[in-house]
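TEACHING EXERCISE
Course module: macromolecular assemblies
Task: Read the component lines below, then compare them to the predicted structure of the full complex.
Student: A.B.
Group: 4
Components provided:
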Amino acid sequence: MPSAAFTAVPTLKSVKKIQFANTEDKQEFSKFPTKAGRRSLSRSISQSSTDSYSSAASYTDSSDDETSPRDKAQVNTHGSSDFCVKNIKQAEFGRREIEIAEQDMSALISLRKRAQGEKPLAGAKIVGCTHITAQTAVLIETLVALGAQCRWTACNIYSTQNEVAAALAETGVPVFAWKGESEDDFWWCIDRCVNTEGWQANMILDDGGDLTHWVYKKYPSVFKKVRGIVEESVTGVHRLYQLSKAGKLCVPAMNVNDSVTKQKFDNLYCCRESILDGLKRTTDIMFGGKQVVVCGYGEVGKGCCTALKALGAIVCITEIDPICALQACMDGFRVVKLSEVIRQMDVVITCTGNKNVVTREQLDRMKNGCIVCNMGHSNTEIDVASLRSPELTWERVRSQVDHIIWPDGKRVVLLAEGRLLNLSCSTVPTFVLSITATTQALALIELFNAPEGRYKQDVYLLPKKMGKKKQTVTSSHHYKYSDKI
Amino acid sequence: MPSAAFTAVPTLKSVKKIQFANTEDKQEFSKFPTKAGRRSLSRSISQSSTDSYSSAASYTDSSDDETSPRDKAQVNTHGSSDFCVKNIKQAEFGRREIEIAEQDMSALISLRKRAQGEKPLAGAKIVGCTHITAQTAVLIETLVALGAQCRWTACNIYSTQNEVAAALAETGVPVFAWKGESEDDFWWCIDRCVNTEGWQANMILDDGGDLTHWVYKKYPSVFKKVRGIVEESVTGVHRLYQLSKAGKLCVPAMNVNDSVTKQKFDNLYCCRESILDGLKRTTDIMFGGKQVVVCGYGEVGKGCCTALKALGAIVCITEIDPICALQACMDGFRVVKLSEVIRQMDVVITCTGNKNVVTREQLDRMKNGCIVCNMGHSNTEIDVASLRSPELTWERVRSQVDHIIWPDGKRVVLLAEGRLLNLSCSTVPTFVLSITATTQALALIELFNAPEGRYKQDVYLLPKKMGKKKQTVTSSHHYKYSDKI
Amino acid sequence: MPSAAFTAVPTLKSVKKIQFANTEDKQEFSKFPTKAGRRSLSRSISQSSTDSYSSAASYTDSSDDETSPRDKAQVNTHGSSDFCVKNIKQAEFGRREIEIAEQDMSALISLRKRAQGEKPLAGAKIVGCTHITAQTAVLIETLVALGAQCRWTACNIYSTQNEVAAALAETGVPVFAWKGESEDDFWWCIDRCVNTEGWQANMILDDGGDLTHWVYKKYPSVFKKVRGIVEESVTGVHRLYQLSKAGKLCVPAMNVNDSVTKQKFDNLYCCRESILDGLKRTTDIMFGGKQVVVCGYGEVGKGCCTALKALGAIVCITEIDPICALQACMDGFRVVKLSEVIRQMDVVITCTGNKNVVTREQLDRMKNGCIVCNMGHSNTEIDVASLRSPELTWERVRSQVDHIIWPDGKRVVLLAEGRLLNLSCSTVPTFVLSITATTQALALIELFNAPEGRYKQDVYLLPKKMGKKKQTVTSSHHYKYSDKI
Amino acid sequence: MPSAAFTAVPTLKSVKKIQFANTEDKQEFSKFPTKAGRRSLSRSISQSSTDSYSSAASYTDSSDDETSPRDKAQVNTHGSSDFCVKNIKQAEFGRREIEIAEQDMSALISLRKRAQGEKPLAGAKIVGCTHITAQTAVLIETLVALGAQCRWTACNIYSTQNEVAAALAETGVPVFAWKGESEDDFWWCIDRCVNTEGWQANMILDDGGDLTHWVYKKYPSVFKKVRGIVEESVTGVHRLYQLSKAGKLCVPAMNVNDSVTKQKFDNLYCCRESILDGLKRTTDIMFGGKQVVVCGYGEVGKGCCTALKALGAIVCITEIDPICALQACMDGFRVVKLSEVIRQMDVVITCTGNKNVVTREQLDRMKNGCIVCNMGHSNTEIDVASLRSPELTWERVRSQVDHIIWPDGKRVVLLAEGRLLNLSCSTVPTFVLSITATTQALALIELFNAPEGRYKQDVYLLPKKMGKKKQTVTSSHHYKYSDKI
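Instructor-supplied answer key:
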């Protein structure tokens, strides 16, 4: 039984703030729900306890309440029981986490304040499926403040902050989510969000496409009333484009993933910080003087290189695109071939988006103690599979840190088993989540209020000009600084 | 009448890359051709020799030969007289300048070497109208090496390096250009390039659109044989799009101006260096510790800010676009309103592309000794006109440097009279010109060799993939570095 | 009575480099030994397991073995029982930690390899009192490899890594130390190191001066054979200078604390990284765009500013020393008065070494959410005492993170209660510890091998030239990089 | 005749602002005044016209007045003729240059304002021998404002700005200096300063030691009244220490050269800017993407590396001192051996202070177009002598730029013939000169006002604390910034 396996693992640290830890696994899971689901799900569970690097104290995990939330009868202080969370009594702690998050989400709070009077979402009935964290809670409560009714569920079986879910449920938002759901729980929760008496969604906010998928499969008639879908993830957007190509998309959809703000923040600015954070938390490495090769000089690579160079690392680049390679040169990085420098490197970082960027042959040639990690868009940049061979010994030295030991004693330090370092071993700053959440809110406002005919049954990017509201995404941050001095 | 034709067209050509000053005077001249033309022309000429910041010794200027080249009979050592330059005897000096330029134009030389065997321009008859500098000469000689026949003229009456023109003429390229042409000379030279017995152009390389314009007006039949136009400047491209809209473009045209390589280099990388160079050469200012405000955080602004920050200046930004403002914040710059900080600034730099970014009121509030200059795309960012009022005294303290003196003795240091600092007071690195020249060469190759039907009577950007040759633009630089270690 | 002796001496020892928290509690303890000592000790102990930010899994803490090590009979696999550690069975885990540490201590390993043949410490009998960590173990094992016999104890009652102590004991080094010693244990351990049958120390390696103090008080005759003392801490060095002034220093002493390498690394390079690490682990703050004021522009301040600026924070400085202020200006930082900017700041960092740099009045004026922390040399830079008043509410939101809540709801985020952020909330890179450890080893070699008369009964700095061995401190790092390419 | 040789050279540009162009030659000259003087003097003259990169328009050079100033009778508007300058009528232009200089010399102006009331130099009779530039004029006029009487002469035969000398003479300061003095003129001018009826110096301000030397030789009795010597140059300070060692120093002397402010500014901050300026003005090189090796990582090297790295150059270091090498590593630079990388470099910069850092063998291995220059403390870092061999061709392509051509056609670009690039091809910012000038003024004040016995017949550094006045050096700059926002 999955949950037994889950609790059997020594859980030294809490898994609280982690936003996306197993999204990769989740995505795999979502793609092949019928066949491979069970297997990959099990694997995810066995890994999940070690995936967190949260700084927050874990009130939740110390709970020894093993009863499934589905079997509990809970009522909030207003008498409602239209929710399903781990423990409604954690609401107060969750409220505090939400308040802390609000402090670094000024764009969203600013939007809330400006638009509160006009209630641009009055009449909107939004069903949402996202990670349920303090930051998402600020988004949900903003949508409510702008006039919307919301029902919410989790897009990942591990990423829910139970106390935040409790806090939302306490204020009257029907939330169906807890940390450590089973696969069955997962779809049950989605179903409870969509399929409720006397309430029908007219907007969908999705992250990963599972909610959209479920509605398509089970309640296609819902789409008659839905004015649009807002989707954040790469995978979900990909699915929407496939639907669109197949002529099956029956409502307008907004691709938030490719908005300028999200791209710049998720990649350049965010990775600039998370590469340092991820390496430090896992290895305590000193950056100064270290020889680092970064594979790929796109936005992620640029972020990584900027940060490492600034802290005194000696950084070189591999890049096959000539324009990006030229940019690397002009930014002062040596452009090299990986095989030429691999022997000397202290750290190898992949951010190309391609497969097998670091091959077994190159891993064989690395020096003792070399750290290898992945910041790119998949978990196949490093050929980790090739390391799972009998002549090599794996030794887990810390959470997310494996030593791969060669017969001659050489150790290579592999982080997060080649999965995304920034998701596995670092936290995403609230500020970044704020940018994305504000973009999501604006996309919902735009789709909900658009005159008929503006958007057809297609996938759209957020328009550059939306009147003064669009400016809120950034200008509130802008003025945050500009008004100061 | 040539001058009528000239004035009939908006000829505010982009003269982005030349290091010679007075291009704006040329523009003034163009704007008021009937009244002020003659006078401003005279003034320009008298200033031109002192306004140059080229590091090359100017052998030409010391020449006291006042005879017009049109009135001279000159023959090169091969017996040809199909050219018109200032003094064919300067060829040797010009050759040396070309050789020096070749050293930092490895992309172009690399293209020359690679493609020399296959002669991709065999049969091409190119008529060109560009600045005639050592760097352009490398381009022209590359085109010849690739099989083309060329005839060339200048796109600007001041920008010709006479000795380079001589060197080209000596090797057999018919060149019609000298420094300090009259307007009549200008069109005469173009005409001599196009209208020649027994030779008809089948490709046009233009910079500013004057050559194209002339062919349209006088020799429209030439277009029957022309396979395409390659245009570099903003103005020229604008004209082509207008022709295209009006359905009058009768051959394919390639817009080199908006290529990625040109944009990044002309703006970000180039300005990063030229802001330092321009300020240093004019004012000898120490950057460390100086309070600087940069108006506008586009590519030019980013380049300026990066450089100044790196050298210890304390930089803040004004920016109205919220995305750019957010980028400035994330890059560590205070985003301010100009009026809030104007009193404290040591240096004010405009790079917005807008008008009246620095107003008279703000100039009034600047502190004594404040330096004001413009790196943007027009000469109207600083309201210089407002400074030409009786209560203020102008004092020219150095070439390109005016002190504007207020009644109370306060001095504001105005550079280049508000025109582009990087054009007036700095040089453009050969490396940057090499990037553009290579792009031009590739565009010519592409248009000349494209199968019929690939390009219609429209304006195109250079395709991202052109087979291996396209890579040459950047990959030769790329491998320049990557092959080293 | 040991505790009397202990309290008689000012024991505010420097605990610069350990990553375990609560060192300040130890100091508090020392300050109020009679009254609050017992209580604060208890509190510290109860907090210590959660206060750690070491990335290593803590096998020790989960131990529920409450028996005092002094009451246990333990024997290593070689049959020796000349040690006293928590649990000799943890040796294997400790060995792995030591091996991991060795990978980033190339200077020390290089010294070990070079000097192993000549055994420059053959005959040396070293008694040591330092933090007992994986890094120190590498030092101890290097000393043994160079020919020394060692006996070791801990300089801090909390900082011992039990499994590392076990690993050392297992290899035959008599270690007397465990995490969570009582005060009585502390002196008992020291005594067991010094006072052993048939072995008398001829070298002392101390960190804080407690070992030296104990020998002076109890076994002054030992100094007859001792060739020198090597001391690392500020406090210990201070004590030695006092002894020297008083004419009571009876052997040569080497001041390692003030060596160039230690100063640069402990301050500039180390703080450059630990400010980021400490802030990120405690608050998950995004640095980009944050307004930060750093109080003090000495080496620590320089390190902090460099790192924060590089990651996009907008940094200003307060500094009273005019030379340092000028340096800040020339490095591109605004030099301000704290009171002028306090309202706008997102983060306030102290690194002056002075008292009350951040006053209650300034704390009152901070904006909601402002983060305040200390990187300086004492715990009094922020007037934390003034915050312990009835009108303010303290709320511990995470380990090392308190929200101080004003009556109007404003929250100020105080890190580590104003104690050193880098000690409390960050780890010290092994590389830095390696530099110090190598310096200590070289100092021991120098003192042990110096011809008679070279060093008198005084305090010395390590000589700049010691023959080729001195170079090892840095040159092994040097060549680590230079030999690569 | 020297002056004939001088005028025979085509002087395309002015030699106006150059502060130190020929100091090297001058120093050589000073060291062997009797024997080698004539020869090195001649050589200097032939080089001087090309040594300038001044941005100032040259009013002076256009003068065709060949009469020696010594043969002219000139009177200022106050009726005084106690001076000898090129042309007193240039006073107005010189005044403007002085006013421009004042704008960036706030430290000195601030000192002038603060101390004007108390006249700390009342009674001081200062004889000075320095470069006579606008910046020095601000110093001299500050000394006068503080109560001193001054007589002044030039320390270099080429460095005088004639119009500034005229402006000083016009205000009543007896100045004896012009540009292009003969050796005989040089000593005549010094003599006229010292040896005047009814006025005897009691303070000496020297730069290079020639004035001091002359007084020692010719008027030793002057030292009876002299309260002290302030010396700025390395050479002059060296001479003073020699005198001191030999027991021949008969008054206290202040070594301004080794003051903290001067060292930091002349080296780190100044070179950070002048390396860019010097390379750009001579070669127009683009820094981005260039492979650069900097030999030596002292303060000069640090300045060069910081700047080049910031502008996108790919910088590596050679360094033999292990501490400096470690710093280079920690700052993110590869530490290499020159011979390992010499083939790949685009630019080679020496700043070690040693001889033959770049050997003929290495020059042989450089690639075509490699730029070689020297920022160090002597002109022997590059083995230029080895390049003066028959198989190599020298070609002067621009002022300060030689192409050395190998038999196979390879060209190496040698700047300033291996002399100091920052002196030969760049300007020293007024701000830096201001720091030094203020230090000189403070040293004069300190020596003049010191109670008897504080300073003996020895060489001193400026004391760290001088009361509030000492703060002026930097704090006026400090407050310049800190008071602003």
